[in-house]
Write a sequence for this structure.
C-alpha cells in the first residue's frame, strides 16, 4: 500500500501542474476578455461622440494592465490635438498618479501633462512638471526648452538666466544657448534701465558680452546708456563695436554715432567708422554723402551716391539723390516734379518693413530681438536690397 502511494505522487503532481496551468490560462483569458470589453466600450463612446465616458472607461484600464500606458498617452495627445485640454489633462494626470507604471512611463506622461498645462494657460503647473524632468535622461532637453518658453512668456529673466547657466555648467555648449543667455541678460538690463538703475544694467550687459562675443544688442544698449549720460565719446566707442560683431546691424549704429559726433562737434571717430564701412549699407553711404554735402561738395556727393546706387540700388538712396538734384536744379518745373517724386518715395519707404526674420520670414518696422512668429532669438535683422540697406 505504501509503495502504491509513492507511485501515485508523480501522477498527483502532474495533475496539479496541468490544473494550475489551465487555471492560469483561464484567468488570463478572463483578464484579456475584460480588457477587450473596456477597449470596445471606450471605442464605442468615442465613435458615439461621448468623449467623457470614453475617458472614464479608458482610465479604468490602467488599474487592469500597465501595458496600456502608451495607448493612454497617445489618447491624451489625441484629445490635446482636438483642443479638448481638460480631457487630455485628466488622462495624463491619472497616468502620473499610478504607482504600478515604470519611471520612464511616468516621465513621458509628465512631459505630456506639462504640454497640456501650457496650452491650457496653467504656466505654474507646467513649470513644476518640467522642473521634475530636468533629471530625466530622456526628456531633460525638451523640458529645458519648455521652461525657457515659459520664462520668456512670463518675462522671468532671472530664472531663465539661472536655468541657462546651469545648462552651461552641465556641459551645454551651443551657439543658440549662448545667444539666448545674452538676450536674457539684455532683457534684464532693459528692466534696470526703465528703473533708472544704469549701473546694474551695465553689469548685465557686460555679462551678455562675456557669454556671447558676437552679440550686438549689449553694445547697442551700452551706447544708448552712455548717450543718456552724455558720455558721447564712450558711446561712440561702444557703438563702433557693432559692425565687427555683425555687419547687418551697422545701419542701427551709424545714426547714433552721427548724433554723438554732432553733440561733440567732432567727426573724427565718425569718419573713421565711415571710412572702413561706408559701402556696406545704405545708411552708412548716405551718412558719408550727407557729410560731403554739408562741406559744400554737393555735386561730388551726388556723384558718389550715383555710383553707389549703380552697384547697390536702394529706395533710400534714390530719395537722397533726388534731394541733391533738387538742390542743384535750376529749372522750376523740373524741381517741382522731383519734389513730388521724392515725396512719393518717402511714403513708400515709410510703408515698407525695415526688419525681417531670417528663420521664418516675419517682417516688421520695429526691432524684435525675439521673433514674434517663430520665437527664436537674434534672427530678425535689417532688410537688405532695394527696400532696405
Amino acid at each position: 500500500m505504501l509503495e502504491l502511494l509513492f507511485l501515485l505522487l508523480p501522477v498527483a503532481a502532474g495533475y496539479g501542474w496541468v490544473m494550475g496551468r489551465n487555471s492560469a490560462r483561464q484567468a488570463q483569458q478572463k483578464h484579456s476578455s475584460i480588457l477587450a470589453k473596456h477597449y470596445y466600450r471606450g471605442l464605442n463612446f468615442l465613435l458615439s461622440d461621448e468623449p467623457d465616458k470614453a475617458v472614464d472607461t479608458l482610465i479604468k484600464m490602467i488599474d487592469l494592465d500597465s501595458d496600456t500606458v502608451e495607448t493612454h498617452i497617445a489618447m491624451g495627445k489625441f484629445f490635446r490635438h482636438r483642443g479638448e485640454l481638460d480631457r487630455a489633462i485628466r488622462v495624463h494626470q491619472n497616468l502620473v498618479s499610478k504607482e504600478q507604471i515604470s519611471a520612464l512611463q511616468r516621465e513621458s506622461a509628465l512631459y505630456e501633462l506639462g504640454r497640456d498645462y501650457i496650452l491650457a494657460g496653467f504656466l505654474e503647473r507646467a513649470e513644476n512638471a518640467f522642473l521634475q524632468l530636468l533629471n530625466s535622461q530622456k526628456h531633460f532637453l525638451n523640458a529645458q526648452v519648455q521652461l525657457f518658453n515659459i520664462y520668456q512668456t512670463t518675462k522671468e529673466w532671472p530664472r531663465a538666466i539661472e536655468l541657462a547657466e546651469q545648462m552651461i555648467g552641465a556641459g551645454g555648449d551651443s551657439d543658440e544657448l549662448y545667444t539666448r543667455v545674452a538676450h536674457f541678460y539684455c532683457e534684464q538690463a532693459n528692466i534696470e534701465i526703465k528703473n533708472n538703475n544704469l549701473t546694474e544694467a551695465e553689469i548685465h550687459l557686460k555679462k551678455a558680452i562675456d557669454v556671447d562675443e558676437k552679440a550686438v544688442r549689449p553694445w547697442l544698449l551700452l551706447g544708448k546708456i552712455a548717450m543718456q549720460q552724455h558720455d558721447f565719446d564712450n558711446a561712440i566707442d561702444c557703438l563702433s563695436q557693432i559692425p565687427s560683431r555683425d555687419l547687418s546691424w551697422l545701419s542701427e549704429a551709424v545714426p547714433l554715432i552721427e548724433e554723438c559726433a554732432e553733440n561733440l562737434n567732432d567727426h573724427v571717430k565718425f569718419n573713421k567708422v565711415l571710412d572702413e564701412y561706408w559701402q556696406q549699407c545704405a545708411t552708412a553711404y548716405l551718412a558719408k554723402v550727407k557729410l560731403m554735402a554739408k562741406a559744400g561738395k554737393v555735386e561730388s556727393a551726388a556723384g558718389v551716391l550715383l555710383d553707389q546706387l549703380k552697384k547697390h540700388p536702394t529706395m533710400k538712396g534714390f530719395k537722397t539723390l533726388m534731394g541733391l538734384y533738387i538742390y542743384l536744379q535750376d529749372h522750376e518745373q523740373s524741381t517741382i516734379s522731383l519734389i513730388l517724386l521724392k515725396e512719393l518715395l518717402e511714403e513708400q519707404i515709410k510703408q515698407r518693413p525695415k526688419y525681417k526674420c531670417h528663420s521664418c520670414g516675419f517682417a516688421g518696422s520695429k526691432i524684435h530681438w525675439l521673433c514674434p512668429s517663430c520665437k527664436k532669438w537674434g534672427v530678425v535683422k535689417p532688410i537688405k536690397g532695394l527696400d532696405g540697406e
